Amino acid sequence: MTAALAGHPSIEICREEIAGLPPADWDSVIVATGPLTSVALADAIRTVTGADALAFFDAIAPIVHRDSIDLSVAWFQSRYDKAGPRGTGADYINCPMTRSQYDDFIDALLAGDKIGFHDWEATPYFDGCLPIEVMAERGRETLRHGPMKPFGLTNQHAPLDKAYAVVQLRQDNRLGTLYNMVGFQTKLKHGEQLRIFRTIPGLHGAEFARLGGLHRNTFLDSPKLLNATLQLKAAPRLRFAGQITGCEGYVESAAIGLLAGRFAAAERLGEAIVPPPPTTAHGALLAHITGGHIGTIDAGSRSFQPMNVNFGLFPPLAQTPGRGADGVRLRGTQKTIAKKQALTARALDDLARWIGGDQVAAAE
User: Fold this and answer.
1) In angstroms, rounded to a whole number, what is the distance separating the alpha carbons of residues 193 and 340?
2) How far apart are alpha carbons 79 and 118 in whole angstroms?
């Protein structure tokens, strides 16, 4: 790729820092500065978009696929039945713990293997996004008086049994397929997260779209700041691509970069711009970072966090496969695999049609 770019007659590569925003006569610019955007450029972006436009650290809580949560144990309810992001009094999924289960959970958090900060990203913790294991270190009762408080909740499966602690999961995307573990940002290693979090009642079979973490990463509050073609609403001459938009992973960053390039080229050529369908990996990720994420219950509270592409971002199938080719009813892992295969087949078909000309037909 480097050789192809360097040898292209229409491309000029200048390896130098652009201090602040590009010159005003650059009327079509793609900013793809990654997770370590320079201070000058970051400050310029914040000036254009507002003080809360950028975050500099991920405080990532795990995200669980909704259909892997055991609702014979967990239940839907908002604390004190207050309306949340969905506008109802049942916006959260609640997983109850007895005292012994809570004590075992705290012991596991304290003993779990954790990842330390690199020297270059070390920073003091601030109370708004403490890792859950750090909260546990501050006292055994800290969590049950913080993100795991049981107050204002009644277990629908056992109304007379008062939970000692409750883990809450909040709907994370508009499709309702992904749920965020509230307050569970963590530095536990991924294997430890799987082992410990699956001991939570209702999450014994949990499938995670993303595991938790806390690390240095500069990214935009993209659902608020970018339009559907990755333009900055406050300054449309600027498009953003890659990790700074709030996508995670090399493949995902390259995919969003590819779309930004196609959108910019279509605009320059005067052609209609039609994003890929949300049923495709490109379209699902684009839809999530430009508007598919939903905020927290508190007005103005920032909750958007970077995301890898995953099946939870795809619109549900019209009909989930229930039987295999041999007619035998699918169960458990087989059913999950068949669902993912069907989502993949639909994505490939829709992407082929988009590439083959549906993008032009749709525009017309």
Assistant:
1) 24
2) 38
Report the run of H or E that residue 236 belongs to, with start and end. strand 235-240
User: What value, to the nearest 5°, has the Cα angle with vertex 331 and ends 326 and 333?
Assistant: 105
How many C-beta atoms surround the C-beta of residue 214 within 10 A? 22
CA distances from 327 to 110, 323, 324, 330, 343 (A): 48, 5, 5, 9, 20
Q: What is the pLDDT of residues 275-314, one digit of tens each?
A: 999 999 999 999 999 987 665 433 334 567 778 898 989 9
CB atoms within 10 A of CB 161: 11
Residue count (the chain): 364
**Tokens 């700041």 — which residue?**
225
For residue range 305-359, what is the model confidence (pLDDT) as tens digits?
A: 778 898 989 999 988 888 877 888 888 888 888 999 999 999 999 999 999 875 5
User: Does 3.50.50.60 match the CATH number of domain 25-58+217-313?
Assistant: yes
Token pair 């750090």 in the structure block, residue: 134
Q: Dihedral through CA 127, CA 131, CA 136, CA 142, nearest 10?
A: 40
Q: Are 243 and 34 in contact (CB under 8 A)?
A: yes
Pick the CATH number of 62-211 from 2.40.128, 2.60.40, 1.20.272, 2.40.30: 2.40.30
Q: What share of the chain is helix, strand, coil (3-state, %, to 5)?
A: 35, 15, 45
